Amino acid sequence: MQIIDLSATELSLAIREKRLSSVEVMQAYLDRIEAQNSTYNAIINLLDRPTLISLAKEKDLQLSRGEPVGWMHGMPIAIKDLALTAGIKSTMGSRLLKDFVPSVDSLMVERIKNAGAIVIGKTNTPEFGLGSHTFNDLYGTTANAFDPSKSAGGSSGGAAVALALKMLPIADGSDFMGSLRNPAGWNNIFGMRPSHGRVPMYPAADVYLSTMGTEGPMARNVPDLAALLEIQSGPDPRTPYALQGGKDELQNLPHLIQNNPTLQPNCNYIRVGWLADLNGYLPMESGVLEVCNKSLDRFERESKIIRVEAIAPRFDPRRIWQAWLTWRSTLIGARLKPYLSKPDNKELLKPEALWEFEQSLGVDAQALSQASAERTAFYQHMLEHFEHHDVLALPVSQVWPFDKTWRWPKQITTSRGTVAMDTYHRWMEVVIYATFAGLPCISVPAGFNDQGLPMGLQLIGKPQGDIELLKIANLFAKSIL
After folding, report:
1. Three-state SS for 20?
2. Contact indicator for 186, 152 with CB cutoff of 8 Å
3. Is residue 414 a contact partner of residue 286, using CB atoms and an 8 Å limit?
4. Could you write out the three-class secondary structure of 367-410?
5. What residues contact residue 217 under an 8 Å CB cut-off, 6+ apart?
């Protein structure tokens, strides 16, 4: 077995037991990046090899001196280009920030470094993370790991492809409108959007209103996913909504799963509510529901403790979409406004970003208040679902990976006809429900279509039920993969 074939958990143990040196690990991953990245364009701003080998040698020296080391000691990682990385360009995929080199790390990056990881560069993302298709005018387009002519998804597309092609052992991502879940599903890996507050984000201009974006882990298996989440999570006094508990349980979970692959949640059987296309409301490209259905059928058959039931939504998805648009445009408009203080900057922003800003100009306090009330009612409806089910399931996308030269799908062709998309992100409406309710959600691999393209399945957990959800996702992985 080659070094890059090891899981992150196996790699961590091999380094700490000195069966592998950090230098050997670094060389193996840099060789893999050199062989693959020119085709797929997943990793950007890669530091030079001598610098990275020197950093790896220092990690080996630390270990030889008997100094305490973390789970990620000597492990290479590239950080999504939305997060601040001290001394490494942090551009958010925008020409406006093409030369920006921060002097500090974001809180999440700081925690990853404290766990011993070596930051080797960044992973590609769409401009300001907008849109589930990873392309920008600075670094170009990231290609799908299973077909380089197709989109990798986004906005954590670079991270997902780097993981799928073993250019990284593990990766971070972030999620607002499926930015962890969509690329994970389209590249046959796992991506987790944690409960709101599980992974606090800082620095942040606003820590009160911005409750829909979160960082989280991506991995090739569930134990690795849980291990990185434990490192990323935990309260910070600068973020008032950070969750306080769960870190100790998360710390033990990867070990428990690794040594007991059939580790079960705290119930006799698991009730899965399959929401599918929300009673025909969501247009789905041919084959998406079929692949997800097959994976759920196998999950039920193989695990023995799963009960899958097709259910109808207890909420009106039309009203949720309108409330979502109000919230989204408000938050994104506020993010973009500082960059538009100079009129000339408009020419450097992609049209979709300008559209988001323009939408925000029409939102007043009363409209946002009404959207907040709608969001509150929606959360109560989701709680009603969890009175009868332990986890809810939805496809991770409404379409298969599309031509990477497109900006976004303008229409979805279903078995009943063609449906035009009225916004650049309408084809990803299926991911808004976990976000809007602040619920934990994991994208798990569901299968492939006849063209060999992957699809993922969203498993949505109960409020703050991250640990139980990881256990369920692990059961799913053992049943399906």
Report:
1. coil
2. yes
3. yes
4. HHHHHHHHHHHHHHHHHHHCCCCCEEEEECCCCCCCECCCCCCC
5. 170, 171, 172, 173, 191, 192, 224, 225, 226, 228, 229, 232
Taking every pair of C-alpha atoms in the chain, what is the biggest distance, in angstroms?
A: 66
Is 386 contained in some domain?
A: yes
- Helices (H) and strands (E) counted in the chain, each on its own, are 14, 17
Distance CA 447, CA 315 (A): 29
Asked whether the beta carbons of 53 and 41 are under 8 A apart, the reply is no
Dump pLDDT digits (tens) for 7-61. Answer: 999 999 999 999 999 999 999 999 999 999 999 999 999 999 999 999 999 999 9
Looking up residue 172, the CATH number of its domain turns out to be 3.90.1300.10
Cα–Cα distance between 257 and 238 in angstroms, integer? 33
Q: Which residues share a beta bridge with 151? A: 143
Coil, strand, or helix at residue 199? coil
DSSP letters spanning 187-198? TTSEEEEPPTTT
The pLDDT tens digits of the residues spanning 90-122 come to 999 999 999 999 999 999 999 999 999 999 999
Facing residues of 394 across strands? 458
Does 333 fall in a domain?
no
Contact 226, 253 (CB under 8 A): yes
Phi-psi region of 303 (alpha: psi -120 to 50; beta: other; left: phi over 0): alpha
Q: In angstroms, rounded to a whole number, what is the distance separating the alpha carbons of residues 396 and 393?
A: 9
CA–CA separation, 286 vs 297, rounded Å?
18
Give yes or no for a contact between 87 and 19, defined as CB atoms under 8 angstroms apart: no
Distance between CA atoms of 79 and 43, rounded to whole angstroms?
9
Residue pointed to by tokens 């470094």: 113
Residue 273 to residues 42, 58, 306, 459, 478: CA-CA distances in angstroms?
35, 50, 11, 10, 20
d(CA 33, CA 42): 9
What is the average pLDDT across 262-267?
A: 61
| Alpha carbon distance 144, 326 (integer Å) | 31
What is the residue range of 283's domain? 3-319+365-480
> 474 and 254 in contact (C-beta within 8 Å)?
no
Q: Is residue 351 in a domain?
A: no
Q: Residue 475, Cβ neighbours under 10 Å: how many? A: 24
Structural domain tally of the chain? Answer: 1
From residue 44, alpha-carbon distances to 98, 142, 269, 431 in Å are: 12, 10, 44, 27
| Cα 440 to Cα 462: distance, rounded to the nearest angstrom | 7
241 located within any domain: yes
Looking at the DSSP bridge assignments, the partners of residue 456 are 445
Asked if pLDDT for residue 262 goes beyond 80, the answer is: no
Contact 41, 140 (CB under 8 A): yes
